[in-house]
Amino acid sequence: MASDFHTHYLPADHCRALLSTSDPQAGEFVSLEYHPWHLPENFTVIPQDFPEKLAGFNALGEIGLDKLHGASPDIQLHCLEQLLQLAHEMNKPVVLHVVRCYQEIFALLKRFSLRVMVHGFCGSPELLDELWKRDITVSFPVNALKKTALMDKLTAPRGRFGFESDCNQNISVNEIINKSMIPGVEKMTDQYFNDFLGI
Description:
- This protein has 7 helices and 8 strands, in the order βββαβαβαβαβαβαα.
- It is an alpha/beta fold.
- It has one domain (2-197): Metal-dependent hydrolases (TIM Barrel), CATH 3.20.20.140.
- An 8-stranded parallel beta sheet has the order 1-2-3-4-5-6-7-8, with helices on both faces.
- β7 (137-140), α5 and β8 form a beta-alpha-beta unit.
- The two termini are 15 Å apart.
């Protein structure tokens, strides 16, 4: 059964998915989102009831850093530090949204013991190697299939990866997997999905 590593919609038939939502009952596998785009500029601490809410979810995210959108970089970093600390304490895997902030992310992650996935990755093959060196799972959207140099690395991967539908309702992860034309990729990514969630 195909695994969708990150989506905002209920999965298609013959597919399981990690659904980014605020409702713990929304799907079989759910991740509690605290997106950097939606942080208030006066952010100081995560809500007091957030840890109790997170307990009902399989993962935390998407959370992260974005230099192009959202609250100021200082606010985003302050929030992310608190969220990563909480995920560490509660042993929750983390789904990261990262835009032009990889060095900041790498520096921050050194402080925590976490299972981490970067979603929506369309970066360079060299950056992919950096993520895999740090034992970070990488999730690819459909537009990453156009990047031949990136997809070539998936035929003999040096780390864990998967595919995602994210906000795209027009294509299922089953279709993305088929379009990738990587032999045995469904079974391989299903195992990586299990590894990330600890199931």
